[in-house]
Each structure stands twice: as C-alpha cells, then as structure tokens.
Amino acid sequence: MTLLLFTKRLAGWSIDELVAGAHRLGLAGYDLAVREGHLVNPDNVGTALADLVRVMRSNGLAVPMVSARADLVSYQEGDAKMLLRAMAASDVRLLKIGYFRFPRSPTFNYRLKVEACRRLLAEWETAGREHGVKICYHTHSTTTGDYFLGSSVASLLDLFEGLDPAWIGAYLDSGHLAMEGEPIDLALAMASSHLCAMALKDMRSERGTSYLPAQNRLVPAGAGAVDWAAMARSLARVGFRGPLSIHAEYEPGPGPGLEEMLAHEVGFFRQLLEPHFAPAEQGLNRR
To answer: Is residue 42 pLDDT above 60, yes or no?
Structure first.
C-alpha cells in the first residue's frame, strides 16, 4: 500500500523536515508538488528534483509521482520539457498535469473544446512515452467559476478517447467525484484500465442561504460525502496497487494545527485501507 502525502500544504518544509514528517506519520513517501514557492519548483526542477529524490530514497521513502502547477496543460510550455527530463533522470514515473477549463457560457462548444484538449493530451502522450513518464489527469469538480473537463470519470473517458492507457492515466479524486455525484465504485470500475493514482480527500456541499449556490467544502476524512467503505472495497476489487495520495487540504481550524490534521488523515486512511491489502503490503508504510 503506497500511502503518500501531497506536499501542497508543506511548501515551507525542508528536505529534512519532509523525511522526518514521513517517518513520524508512517508514510511511504510523497506526491511532490513541483510549483512556485516549493522546495522543488519549475525554475530549479532540473537539479533540485534529483537531489530531493536521492535523499528520500536513502531514507527509505518514495517519490513515485509529481503534481505540476495547476495551469500546466500544454507540453509546448517551456518548463514542461525540463520537468519530464528531470523526472526521467530521477526515475519518477507519474506526472499530474494541470486542468482543462471551460467557461460557463450558453455559447460554449463542448465538443470542440474536448477535441482541442485531446490533441494536447496526444502531445503529452508522445512526450511521456519518450521519457518513460505516464501523464495523469486529475478529476476536479465544478467550482463557482469555470467548469473542468474530465470532472467525472464518464467525462474523463470522453476526453481520453483514442489515447493509450499505458501513457495517459486517470488520477481519481474521492472528494471531487462525490461532489459530481458519481458513485465511487462505478467510477473505479469505469476507470480501471486508465487508473494510475488515487487522491484521498473528503468534501461536502454546503448552502449558505437560499440566494446562493451550494459551495463545495473540504472537510476532515469521514465528515463529508465520500462513501469510504465502497471506495476501499472497489480499490481491492480492481486490484489497484498505485499511489494513494492524501491531500489534507482543509483548514485545521482554531484548535488542532497542521500536524494534528495530518495525523488524523493518515490514521483514518490506514485504518480504512489496510484490511483490503495483502498482509505483506501492510508493512510498507510502517516506520
């Protein structure tokens, strides 16, 4: 069971703090955010990624995937090529790219947008194959602004039509799928041929007043709309053995701080998932 922590919330942590934190929390390693303000970022990825991965591995930790900046959607952008080269050199084989967005407009042509984005994914597929890196696209629910292409697995498979599942993968998000109303067991069954990673977070929909649309809110695992029992059973049924990335993106609130929040999330998912994995795998995350 490759239980990771997404480093989006850990921008200020040093390599030593990341190593210590992973051991303290009992993680297998990290889903590494390569973004502005982070230890590894688009400007230094050519050297910093290899340094970080080397330290992690020397401490028994894994970095199987990178999450790029949320607006990196074209391989033709300057930092994309450097990022893939750095990942190949460091033997990091999964890359989450950015999101394809489209506006809430009655004149918007959905089919033309899908076709244009599929062409961008085809370029990523070619580049990924060349570097030995699988390109992952993350399911993200609708916000109060733009729509996201591939917000559910049903729409994601529309986007993936004609692309090679060996190099284009589905990075499913438990919370966002719940907000889209797609049952998690159905989503995993549909995505099984493309499934490359699973994001673990809980969310619920909240309405402030009758005059405002519902807002999707990130909440502690177990306090939202995700059917966790169905997810655990379904991951086992499809034989998933890829990275399980804990996102822990909600605000801790005035009481417990970040460390307590992370400990809660890791403990919740260990208790949920370990019974569904072989005993030999259960020890992989223990420190």
So the answer is: yes
Tokens of 250: 């909600």
Angle at 218 between CA 223 and CA 27, to 5 degrees: 80
How many angstroms separate the Cα of 271 from the Cα of each of 97, 114, 131, 177, 277? 30, 39, 36, 22, 11
- At residue 284, the pLDDT reads 41
How far, in Å, CA of 122 to CA of 128, rounded?
A: 10
Q: Of 130 and 78, which is predicted with more confidence? A: 130
Provide the whole-model pTM.
0.93
Q: Exposed, middle or buried, 109 (CB in 10 Å: 0-12/13-18/19+)?
A: exposed
H or E element at residue 180: helix 174-180
Q: How far apart are CA 74 and CA 80, in angstroms?
A: 8
The contacts of residue 272 (CB under 8 Å, 6+ apart) are: 228, 229, 232
Whole-number pLDDT of residue 282: 40
Q: Do the bridges between strand 2-6 and strand 195-200 make them parallel or antiparallel, or are there none, so unpaired?
A: unpaired
Q: Answer whether 241's CB lies under 8 Å from 250's CB.
A: no
Report the alpha-carbon distance of residue 36 to residue 52 in Å, rounded.
16
How remote is the C-alpha of 182 from its chain's centroid?
17
- Alpha-carbon distance of 233 to 247, in angstroms, equals 20
Six-digit token string for 86: 């750095």
189/234 Cα distance (integer angstroms): 8
HSE-CB for 142 with a 13 A CA cutoff: 14
Query: Is 197 in contact with 242 (CB distance < 8 Å)?
Result: yes
| Cβ-proximal residues to 49 (8 Å cutoff; 6+ apart), any chain | 32, 34, 40, 66, 86, 87, 90, 92
